[in-house]
Amino acid sequence: MTAPTPAPAAAPARVPFDRRLARAAQTVTSRALGPYQTAIVRIGFSLTWLFFLVREFPHRHEMYGPDGPWSFEMARRLIADNRAFTVLMWSDGRLWFEVVYGLAVVAAVLLLLGWHTRAVSVVFMVGALSLQNRSVFLGDGGDNVVHLVSIYLTLLRCGQVWSLDARRAARKAAGGEEAARRVELAGPVLWVVLGGFLVAATWFSPVTGEWWLYVLLWVLWLGQGLWWLVEQYAPGEPRVLLDVLANLAHNAALVVLMAEVCLIYATAGWYKVQGSRWQDGTALFYPLHLDYFTPWPALSELLASSGIMVMLLSYGTVIVQVAFPFTLFKRKVKNVLLVAMMLEHAGIALLLGLPAFSMAMIAADAVFLPTVFLVWLGARAAKGRDRVLRRRTAAAELPPQRPAPGGEPGGETGGEAAPRTLVG
């Protein structure tokens, strides 16, 4: 007898389109997507801008200040034409420049730590735009990325994890209703001060910036004030509505940021395809022989001496940049290309001497890192931090040593080393 033929498996039921649409709408309104990705972007770009400001601190007056070749009057004429935003046009005094530069450094540090990220991100954006727009001819591709992402960060809820805001929220949740009702003065005071500066910026707007940026600043300031009032006096449905709006703004900005990164690589890759030097695989040979792009001449000469290596790196750069936007829905392939692009930028920083540019691009690439890897990375960093703190605490709690007989602890007496003793 032949075995009975098994019945065919039933095909999975198709989810109706309206249900899928409702599920997608609930996803983008109920929570801020990519909390770890936006946190690593926040950390990466604040660290990049801080590194740049500290590195160029001795040359700040020549680059963006009153001693630069691009004079205050020339900058005023250009800004009156292109309507760029910079608070450095309020005054050509050295003191005002030092205040703006110092605030930019402080904002980068506070954003790196995640202290009141929404307010600090606005100050970070103002500092970055003000310095870059003061001397627009000093920038490169990395500066352009910082310029754009500094605007996106004001809309992202990038302090959900790995920030002082997240730690404060966790403590408040663990403290119960009494901790939740406690009013923190740092946030309101900070936004009141920022409101005063915003009034001054709006007053100077005919000569210092584009109107849309001031609209964005006023929307952020009024929205934050409304958020604080609702949280204190109407924590019910009005708070839920504001959460929905904040999640929509966050998710929209996240999509724009991802599209921006894809556009950067797509345009760079396709322009390279049209170049004859990239087509014959010799494009990398030429910057390796420019003094401006050879911080390690011996290493550059060693790499440039291998024609096969130059060809492979040139073709590999074009292939990775062109292919990356098409691999976003193939997770394994996307992760491989993502590692390749980060290694490429690390090589640019080492071989061509462009660390700030490479750091900015790696920070932008981090928006595509998988959540599992970021969670693992955060756990490893937390373990390392706890281990270091535990060692410091243990070292601080050790009792003092009693001097050995005849001298210092462990000193020599009568030709023999005195034994070490601990008090208690």
Brief rundown of the structure:
This protein has 19 helices and two strands. By secondary structure, the protein is an all-alpha fold. It has a two-stranded antiparallel ribbon with strand order 1-2.
Secondary structure layout:
Elements lengths: L16 H14 L4 H21 L4 H4 L8 H11 L11 H20 L3 H18 L6 H13 L10 H12 L1 H5 L4 H18 L1 H4 L2 H23 L3 H37 L2 H4 L17 H8 L2 H17 L7 H21 L3 H11 L5 H27 L14 E2 L2 E2 L7
Helix pairs in contact: 2-5, 2-7, 2-18, 5-6, 6-7, 7-18, 10-12, 13-16, 16-17, 17-18
With strands numbered from the N-terminus, the spatial order across the biggest sheet is 1-2
Rg, nearest Å: 28 Å
Enumerate how many helices there are, as a single number: 19
Structural category? mainly alpha
Helix content: 55-70%
> What percent of residues are in strands?
under 5%
Low-confidence stretches: 403-424
Global morphology: globular
Q: Which sequence of SSEs, written as H and E, runs from N to C?
A: HHHHHHHHHHHHHHHHHHHEE
Ends distance = 89 Å
Number of strands: 2
Mean pLDDT: 84
The main sheet comes to: 2 strands, antiparallel
Describe the structure.
This protein has 424 residues and is mostly helical. Helices cover 68% and strands 1% of the residues. The protein is built from 19 helices and two strands. The protein has helices spanning 17-30, 35-55, 60-63, 72-82, 94-113, 117-134, 141-153, 164-175, 177-181, 186-203, 205-208, 211-233, 237-273, 276-279, 297-304, 307-323, 331-351, 355-365, 371-397, and strands at 412-413, 416-417. The protein has a two-stranded antiparallel sheet. A hairpin with a 2-residue loop joins β1 (412-413) and β2 (416-417). α16 crosses α17 (331-351). The radius of gyration is 28 Å and the shape is globular. 26% of the residues are buried. Mean pLDDT is 84; it is low at 403-424.
